Each structure stands twice: as C-alpha cells, then as structure tokens.
Amino acid sequence: MERPRQHDRQPFSRAGFSIVEILIAVMIIGVLAVILIPTLVNRVKEAKIAAAERDLEEIAEAQRRAAIQMNYYLRMYALDDIPGGDGYALGDANDQRDGIADEIANTVFYDTPSRLFINPNTNDLLDTARADAVYASLAPETAYIWQGPYLTIQRDESPALHDRTSNPPHLHDIPTDPWGNDYLMFFRTGLLREPEGDIVTQVTWYTDTWDTEVFDRPTVLSVGPDGLPGDGQPGSQFGEGDDIVRPFEF
After folding, report:
1. Contacts of 68 (CB under 8 A, 6+ apart)
2. Which residues are bridge partners to 247 per DSSP?
3. What is the phi-psi region of residue 92: left when phi exceeds 0, alpha when psi lies from -120 to 50, beta otherwise?
4. Exposed, middle or buried: residue 41 (CB in 10 Å: 0-12, 13-18, 19+)?
5. How many CB atoms lie within 10 A of CB 211?
6. Helix (H), strand (E) at residue 46
C-alpha cells in the first residue's frame, strides 16, 4: 500500500531588512553625501559667480552706451528707465515702471532726483544746477534724447522688497547680485553711495571702515559670496578676496 505523501515543505521566507543591512545602506548614503554635497555646493557657488560676472558686464555696457549717447554716466537706479513711464515715482505704491520723467518726483533717493549724471572726465556728480539743466532736456520725453532702458537686470527679487503696501515701499531700484547685495559703483574719487547720491572716500560696512579710493577707473563690483568687502578682514580692500570686479571706461 502506498504511503501518504508528505506535503512539500516551503522554504522559510524572511520579510524586511536586518539591522546590519540597514546600517550598511546608511553608511553608503553617508559616503555618497560626503562626496556629492561639496560638489553640488561648489557648482551652485560657481553658477552664482558666473551670473554676477554677466550682470557686471551688462552694467558696464549700459554705462558705456549711456555715456556715448548722453555724454554722462548715470546713477544705476536710472539705467532701467524707459521713455514715458507710468507717471508715478519710485516710492509710490502705484509705481510699476519708471520713466526718466518720473525721476523728478523721486523721493526714495532723498532730495536729489535730478542728480542722475556723473561726468566721465572728472568722475564727479554734476552740481545740482547743471544736473537740473541736463534733466530738463530729458523730462519732456520727446524721446529723441533718452534712449533707455540701458539696463534690463531685474529689480530686487526679495518679496519683502516688492512689498508695495508698506510706507514707503521697500524697493530701491538698484540691481542686486545673486547673494542679495547691491552692486556697487566706484570712481577714481571713491564709492557712489545710494540712495544718498554722493561719492565718498570711506564707507562703514557693519562695524569696520573701508577705504573706497582703490580703483583708477570707473568700476562696478559685487562683494561676492561672503557679502563683505575684500576678504572681510580689516585692512583688506574692495576688489580683493572673493569680490567680483568689472572696470569700464568711456
């Protein structure tokens, strides 16, 4: 008589991973992170530096074109002005885009709305009377003189700076670098401060004082990834360390 067949035994099946396997996977991920994260960080930094270099090139070219067409360099907040405008000055909650004629009512840049012009020979701002006379030839905007915008770099991208509901709106119209700092414009005689509209030989950056008579020609500059002049140490100069510099000439 044939004996009953025993049921075939199924091999033991184990679900999930052991602690050892999990630890090995975590170690592999950790090693990859150590290798890849610095590379990614460096690539982001390099991309921002390249973007700043392109911006500075555009600013220098804008100043060159403005000087050829008008015989003057311009303060940077006017470089993106268009013929016409919206009838509202920077600082008004209704302002969307500035035209050169809007600048006469500009209260953000203190009481120097028409001091837009820098003499390319002396590197000095025009005195108010002369600046007013030059501005008067542009303000009617018959458009045969004003050829702007010379610059198309965006205004500040920070939502806080775009808050037009505040009083006054937090928007100053100076192009900013990829790290959120203003691009700076230097002349042989020093740094053009904004919004004050004067050229100074020294500037206080946080708690330290820096000399600004450091370039022999007009120069635009980003203070770079560290957000500080030079290498950030007292005694260094603008244009050193990780600063990004673009000289230009008329």
Report:
1. 250
2. 219
3. beta
4. exposed
5. 14
6. helix 19-70
Q: Record the tokens describing residue 71, joined without a space.
A: 């015989």
**Residue 152 contacts residue 58 (beta carbons within 8 Å):** yes
Cα 225 to Cα 185: distance, rounded to the nearest angstrom: 18
Is residue 133 helix, strand or coil? helix
Q: By three-state DSSP, how is residue 137 classified?
A: helix
pLDDT of residue 137: 76
Architecture of domain 20-247: 2-Layer Sandwich (3.30)
Residue 181 predicted with pLDDT over 80: yes
Mean per-residue pLDDT of the chain? 78
What the block records as the tokens of 110 is: 């203190």
Q: Are 102 and 81 in contact (CB under 8 A)?
A: yes
Alpha-carbon distance of 78 to 100, in angstroms, equals 7
What's the pLDDT band for 246 if we cut at 50, 70, 90?
very high
